[in-house]
Write a structure and sequence with these properties.
single chain; 36 residues; 0% strand; elongated; glycerol-3-phosphate O-acyltransferase activity; G3P_O-acylTrfase_chlp
Amino acid sequence: NLICVYSKKHMNDIPELADMKKRANTRSLKEMALLL
């Protein structure tokens, strides 16, 4: 099961995607917390 986390360095490369990436990171971290 692959979990994708966007790095903060590249978070704002494309401003339109920054919000989506932040949400994806939050979701990924919750998934990881459940798996550990």
